[in-house]
Amino acid sequence: MLRPVFILALLCLLVIYWRQPSSSSSPSSSSDSSSEDPLSRPKAAQPGHSQKSFSSSRTSQVSKRTVAVGDLHSDLPQTLAVLSLAKVIDADGNWSGGQDTLVQTGDIVDRGPDTIAIYNLFDKLRKQAHDAGGKVVNVYGNHEVMNLGQDLRYVTEEDYASFGGRQKRKEAWDVRTGWLGKMIYNNFNITHVRANTVFSHGDMEPEWARLGVDTLNFLAQEAIWESNYRHAPIFQGTGPIWSRAQATQEDGAKATCERVEEVKKALGVHRLISGHTPQYRTGKILSLCNGGYMVIDVGISNYYGGHLAALEIIENGDGTENVYALYPGGKRLL
Predict the structure, then answer these.
(1) E strands along 214-329, which residues?
(2) pTM for the model
């Protein structure tokens, strides 16, 4: 009779013993990650996954690079030299800028022999940059508009010959049927905003800035399609392809900077970048109004002295920006 009772008591003791916590375990050991089922962890804790907030933090630290070059005026060797200086092409003239953005502020044509070669170069780079995650932006200069409208006073004989004569050149520049006219019309705008910066060929005046970038580009494209080159208001003297009001400080330094501030406020940008007014006497980028306005036409073509310079804007991950002038001798903070 005692044997079954003894066995039952022994079983009870064993159950009590096994239910006691292990002496090597802490009270919180049940929440320790080492005892978790790996499949139940948040994705951030799993190998090969990154938490969304961490990924965003890393992305915010990546700098974005925009480079801009001014008037090229049908000089291919100088064009290749300045794009190499800007580190957006390699020794073979192919895109090497990765995810960078290149902005060219117009006047590729006139005063030299290499019109076809340079437009074809930019068309190639535009496609290569797109494939690499970068971008090439072209802005109309007054010389593009002049040539589209058959104002040919600055075309050289070498330029005519490269097209096979005057008639073939005229046909090529037609925006409806010509290979070059269509290329330009489909890829150029009168202004562009990038990196908190508005780019235009001539100076951007407040009255035009208040219309907004989209409206300005629409007005320019509409006028070109309708062949309204000589009478469209946007192509007149105060428009974004012709104005030199800021570059020459025609109203004085104070009034110029006040107008620059008006444009910046209207477009929500930090700075204005123009070409058009060649700084061939210095060969340097002109910076006015505490860096709020710059002219990057330094006279790149040999017609204007063969000066090399490019503008570089670095957008930092913390929201700040650094602006540099790139010269053959090195880069300078502007």
Answers:
(1) 271-274, 286-288, 293-295, 310-315, 321-327
(2) 0.81
CA 333 to chain centre: 18
**Strands 330-333 and 321-327, sheet pairing:** antiparallel
What are 256's strand-pairing partners?
A: none
* Half-sphere exposure in the Cβ direction for 304 (13 Å, CA): 26
Output the CA torsion sign for 247, 101, 229, 218: negative
DSSP letter for 304, please.
G
Residue 157 CA to residue 76 CA, distance in Å, equals: 16
- Measured distance between the N- and C-terminal CA atoms of the chain, rounded to whole angstroms: 103
Pick the closest to residue 275 from 117, 49, 68, 90 (CA basis).
Answer: 68
The pLDDT value given to residue 20: 42
Beta strands 271-274 and 286-288: pairing type? unpaired
| Closest among 193, 202, 75 to 141, alpha carbons compared | 202
Q: Which residue is listed with tokens 């957006």?
A: 88
Own/partner pairs, 224-228, CB within 8 angstroms, 24+ separation: 224/145, 224/148, 224/175, 224/185, 225/175, 225/176, 225/185, 227/149
Residue range 178-202, pLDDT digits in tens: 999 999 999 999 999 999 999 999 9
